[in-house]
Amino acid sequence: MPQPPNPPSPVHVVQLTDAHLFADPVGSLLGLKTRDSLGHVIDQVRREQPRIDLLLCTGDLSQDASVASYEAFRDMTQVLGAPSRWLPGNHDEAQVMAKVAPELLQTVTDIGAWRIVMLDSAVVGATFGLLADDQLVLLDQALAGAGGRYCLVCCHHQPVDIGCAWIAPIGLRNADELLQRLRGYPQVKALLWGHIHQEWDEVRDGMRFLATPSTCIQFAPRSEDFKVSEEQPGYRWLRLHDDGRLETGVERARDFEVSLDFDSPGY
Fold first, then answer.
1. What residue spans define the domains of the chain?
2. Among 78, 171, 206, 233, which has the highest number of CB atoms less than 10 A from its own CB?
3. pTM
4. pLDDT tens-place string over residues 70-120
5. Under CATH, to which class is 11-252 assigned?
């Protein structure tokens, strides 16, 4: 499959995650219409990111895994005019995603001085994540074959403790195996994920660990039990420099009014 054309340095990347779209255009979580919130985030991206070289969509694009929801996500994000890469989350069905947009489910993308690796951590019928043996083999091959490229590795489930007790059991079950592999490749500069519906940014052993707010409802940081926040939905931007440096930040849809209905069906 052809790769995106090599842009000038730095490579401009945008991450959208956890849109939770429904087949129903007015489908909602806690009273928040997920297509509406995604639309506001996309409008924010368009205002702030005139150049996007690659769009990374890191799972739970759908809430009901319907063809219509994936078609809606594809159509809504096409206005950004950027090549996209998708990976599945625990609410997604990879086979349905592949039916709608097979060209977007690509594991390895080389762009500029970087290699982007998209790993499928979803487990059928489960909320937690696991990188199956075939995904670990793909990762090993991708990193071993990266040559002089720097690497950004992406998955859906969180590989580290984020201080939310309720979400810890639904993270990546074999995170230690993943992190041990990554430590053997100093060209891996960052690990990026979704799932936790909140921002995360830390450096461990020289590698950046990053998570991004959902384009719909947000989870409250440092919560023992399930708790949502009324923060606005958002996205992450990244600048991947040809010397291996990475700049990044989170922006939120400032014009979107969050009004949650806690009597409506939950997340």
1. 11-252
2. 233
3. 0.96
4. 999 999 999 999 999 999 999 999 999 999 999 999 999 999 999 999 999
5. alpha beta
